Amino acid sequence: MKKILIVEGNLREENQSFSVAGIQTHTESLKDSLAYFTDKLETHVVNPSSDENIDKNIDALESYDGLIWGGSSLNIYNNTPEIKRQIDFMKECQKKIKKILAICWGMQVAVTAAGGEVKKATKGSHRGIASNIEINEKGLNHPLYKNKDKKFNTPAFNFDEVVTMPENSILLASNSINNVQGINFKVGKCNIWGLQYHPEITYNKMINLIIFRKKRLLEKGAFKDENEINNHIKHIETENNKLDKVSRMRELENWLDYLNLE
Question: CATH: 3.40.50.720, 3.40.630.30, 3.30.450.20, 3.40.50.880. Which one for 2-259?
Fold first, then answer.
């Protein structure tokens, strides 16, 4: 049985508001998705921003076979104490854990910890869905994208993007909004697979997040009005009817296969 660490990227207060609204936390979504593929995982969860004495977990990091670091509503360039704690913890993980799957915010933290840079996206955002992600030639030959369609749509929610990849990174997939949609890089003996989108989250949850964040999204100009929100939700519902569960989660399945390799 493999032992993995799951890192929750959202602050405890955000997760509490999710729960009140009847929405799964990102960690809960991830656990459900993992359980679809295997019941042979021992999982532990930490929250570097909200857990007290997070440093006490550092000595135990070497006992994990892998780590999955999930999404968050934070913006890494805000550089708050809570964000700094996540970056510092990621640096320790990259020293002590050999296999990391970094999803959306997790990828942004991993890239930053390894010397790359993340900024606000200049070509738009992904509001529940990312369209026309295309796997490049290196990606097609990478185990992350085994059995994945070369071009695909997927659940995603992000306003920021990787603008500078860490040294010796391999770009695996892109779309017109974010050049870096899939990435692979190493830090010492740690091998990081990064995704800017969410194979572990359903379109239904993304729709619920849009509704939950409606006021916030309107205030930041992500949508011009409620009519645009409603039309966008209808678009996601249409995509949801086209997508099968295994295809959506293929990257997660492939990482689990990689985790089981000695």
Answer: 3.40.50.880
